[in-house]
Fold this sequence. Notes:
This protein is mainly α. 79% of the residues lie in helices and 0% in strands. The model has no long low-confidence stretch (mean pLDDT 79).
Amino acid sequence: MNDFLNSLQIMDYVWCFIVGGLICVIGQILIDKTKITSARILVLFVTMGAILGGLGIYKYLVDFAGARCYCSYYRIWI
């Protein structure tokens, strides 16, 4: 148990929380300030993720805010 606690990088989780929170804030601002429905915002976010992945930028975001939780998408695109 002590080895696990020593290997835990708290700042990785803090950055993950901050970046995820900023994405949620952007979505909430779009819902509150525009007439865009939540379904269209979801499509917008998925499309932006695909564009960022296609341009090779998404992996840098995962490296920065991924909290060392490497998803299958990350392993495929390396």
